[in-house]
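The methods section describes the discrete structure representation at length, but only in general terms. The central task, working out the structure tokens from the amino acid sequence alone, is never made concrete. Nothing conveys this as quickly as seeing an actual entry. For illustration, here is how one protein appears when written out as sequence plus structure tokens:
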Amino acid sequence: MRGWFRRRFGASYERLLSREVADADRAPEHVAVIQDGNRRYARRQGESPTTGHREGAKTTERVLEWCQDVGVRELTLYTFSTENFDRPPEQRESLFDLICEKLYEFADADRVHDEEVCIRAIGDVARLPERVQEAVSYAESRTDGYDAFVLNIALAYGGRNELLAAARSVAREVERSELRPDDIDVSTIDSRLYGRPVRDVDLIIRTGGDERTSNFLPWHANGNEAAVYFCTPYWPAFSRTDFLRAVRTYEHRERSWRRTRARRALALLRAMGETELADARAVLGRFRDSLPSTEREAIDDLEVDSQETSLD
């Protein structure tokens, strides 16, 4: 009886979250996931680490579907970090075999082609075994012409290495007088991050209970002040409800940010003199709709007052 009630309650809660997410102003465009807990999940089940990674791969397929359902346009999966090279050889080889298998499987899947999913690898792919590099090339070439949705697979990836390589590239060009220091800007660094244009990250999800981002996409996430959602389920047990909670966390943060900006603009409008009112009103107008009704009414009152003052 208790199990039945839990299932019914869980299904109702998931529908509620779905409605909340669907009614939001906008979904995160780029979600990045740290898929933690595969081995711990396997140990809890009395299975080998390989089993945990295979179960986690099933979750990956479901998350890709959930992202498309809510309007996410880019998904990055932290699949193999530079630190993972320190794992025992038998674990690495099993993981490499699984990565190859899934890259070929995804690249040939009807749904990937029907929905025009572009598969890309980001990271120091040259460090990976030749068979993994071949699987990467196959998946990328099979989906190269698509742009409806982007699936980034982070392989041999490390955020510090990524930024260090970009800095070295810029330094070499400056040394050769091919680039002036004054011309270095954000786009200069963007174009040197593994040669892969990536949207700024809106939301990072980490499963498995740890509350850290582990050297993941520092340029694209920290620079954009991405929302972060930490949750306790291991990656193979990560559910649609967990995913919707993560998206809701992002949406609540966005609404809070807009309200803060609107209130600041309202305070600015109240303090401004007549010469600055036009600019202040323009700023405020962009955030008016996210305010409570009482504050919207206050803005309208100020608008009327300022217009009457102008007529006088």
About this structure: Confidence is low (pLDDT under 50) at residues 308-312.
